Amino acid sequence: MSLRVELLDLRFAREADRFVARHPLGSPFHETRWLGPGLTRHESFPLYETYRRALPAHVEDVLGLVPRKARAEVRKARDRHGLQLVGGPELFDDFYRLYVHNKQSLGSPVFAPSYFRRLLDLFGPRALLHGLRTPGGTLLSAVISLRAGGTLYPYYSGAAPDVDKLGANNAMYAALMEESVRLGLHTFDFGRSRSNSGPAAFKRHMGFEPTPLDYQFFFPHGGHPPRINPDNPRMVLPRRILASLPPWLARMVGPAVMRNVP
Asked: Whole domain around residue 156: which residue ranges?
């Protein structure tokens, strides 16, 4: 297993190196994560970037943060198609179905439903489950978000096929930003994405600017950073196999795979 230490504040540089020096055994590698260039001297792996922005004080000002083209998609979803944000634990089964669909389309393994139920239990009121619903009651997309301090983190998501034609994804995250303001939060953290990927382009389209993330690795016994990402040619066949599985089998196989991902 890897020992992951997430450090998003550069003040911890010395503590990170001291920790690695004190704990060189029992793990094939140590990983530190930095917001911006890391200060340790270990092997660097700049693959991801993250997206955050401050929220306005009033709900009616949120759409002003969204660029013109994305804002038009939000209005199309709301005014033309009548899509509305809904929330509550009763959305769980639909959320999981949409989540599995998205992961399979990417050739990625899935967590078990028990993982998400446990997550919701542990975080309690700090975990929120929202969805975007049609006037006829069909859930088109769903997101589990986590609250920490004054920040909302939309963490796990799923969406039905072709929802972009309705502007649903733009409307989903615009509505979540508005909900964040209603809750008194001041920051929206859109999470990490691989540079130059589709999700990264979508976040820019929504008006978020990237900040580089620097992952650094220390190998007590030698080695190289794990490449468990779609850019690795060795992942092509496993991704094809996962994408070809029927959904019921993907739900069985995925959790076993996730338990062995470093």
From this structure: 51-205
